[in-house]
Structures are given as structure tokens and as C-alpha cells.
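Why do we care about 3D structure at all? Because function follows from shape, and shape follows, mostly, from sequence. That is the central idea of this module. The next example makes it concrete: a single protein chain, its amino acid sequence, and then its structure expressed as C-alpha cells.
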Amino acid sequence: MTTSVYVVHAQLNYIKYNFTYKTEPYNPLTNGTYFLGSKAQDSILLGFNVNIGTSNVSSDTLFISRKGAMYLPQGSASKFNFFGNELLKDGAISYKISGTTGNYIAMIEFSNIKFGYDNTGADFANFQVWLYENGIIEVRFGSSSVKNPDRSYEYKKGGPSIGGPKTWLIGNVQSPIVDTPIIKYLTGTPPDGMVYRFAPDGVNVSKIGFKQDIQLFPNPGDGLIHFKTTTQGKQTVSVYNILQHKIAETLISNQDKTLDITPYPAGMYIISVADEQGQIQTFAYLKQQ
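And the structure:
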């Protein structure tokens, strides 16, 4: 029998998050596990322990709610709003765990989700929240349409609440800033391709995706992955499938290179790039037919 574990310490120590944002193509999840259904909330057994919001609570069980929030077993102190709203309904909600030990990522997707108080029934949103094993949180936005914001967003705030204890976003969705300490709301709906990142203070963000010394393209693609690097020295590129099996590996040394995974099935792959100093960048790659 599988059981979840969590650790709680006495005095609350809130995590300081460093916030950054960027744009990159939105890739829908493939072969995810559907959950929540008609429930108001549901849980995922991650298989790795994480902290959210506070360093006091560490758990391998993650709760997801239809109010656009996630939290650990101890509730509000470890809560994070990735698309906070009064009620998100319908659509499809799925998750997938990818990566390898020390570099796992839990990916949760809300697909074509509707808004509970939108009387037109026309507004919808697509987004994902990625929770990394090292505590980094990313909220990734796909195509959305909200033409009735006063009804779709709670309390006529005009946008979602995104953030957690001591770290809330305010301002325009295309250039938000961090405000603290109480819950705040953005203005508008984040555009397709926007990525918000919250990195715990002290975590090396260059290890996962935001480091700019290597690029891979096209993504999505047909399996021919082109790498462009500005790093001097060798880098090891490893490709993992959704079962966390390594399917390909190559070395890049001061030059551009192409890796061929065309024989493999369409779907989501995790690409890990490790340099000689042990810094790791992780990318999600969507292989199309």
C-alpha cells in the first residue's frame, strides 16, 4: 500500500520567491492522467517531497482545487494560487510526472476550462502549473478568451490571483510585478505563451530552463531537435520519455548540433542538458506526428 508523508515544523518560515516571466510556445500535455472530475478538489501522489509557500511543510501529496489553487496537507500556509478564481468548471484536468530523481516535474493542466459565474458560457482558459522537485513553480498559459471578466473573475477584480503567502502578482498580465503580503489580483488574462516563474530564494534557476546559453528548436517539432549553444566546453544532452526512460544521449562541444528522435512515438519528452560544472537545464519537448 502506498502512503503519503509530510513533515511539519513549529514556527512558520515563509519561502521568499524570486519572480521572472518570459514567453515560449504553449505545449498541451499528452498522455496525462485525468482527475478531479466533478470534485471540488483532488490529490496527486507525487513520488517526491516538495515545499510550497513555507519551508515548514514538506509532502509528497499535492492537492489541486477547482479554485485554481494547489496546497500541501497542512492547508493555507502551503497554498499557492496558479489561477485563483471563485470556481473553475467543466473542461479537462490532467497531470503527469516527468523527469528523473532530483529533477522531477509535476505538470498539471486545465484544458478548455470554464468559469463558474460566467452567464454567457463563452469564456474559457487553458493553462498548466509545473511544480519542480526543487520547489520552482511555473504557470504556463495557452489560448484563452475572457470577454466577460466582471463575471468570470471573482469579486469583479478583472483578473486571476496568482501567487502565495508573501508573494502575490499585481499589474498588467504582460508585465506583472510582485506585491506582498496579502492576496492581490492581476488585470486581464495572461496571453498565450506567457510563462510565470516563482523560484525559491537560493535555488539556482539556471538549472531549469531560464538559462539562455542553449536553445532547442523547433518546439513542437517532428523529432529532429536542433541545439544552438554559446557555452564553451562540453554539454551532455539526455532525452527521457514519459516513463522516465532515457531514449537518446549526445554530446555538444562548442558547436550547434541536431539530435534525431524521429523513430520514437509522438508525445512529450524531457530534455536534460548538463554542463561540465554539473549545472542542468531541463526542457519540455513536444514531438508531433
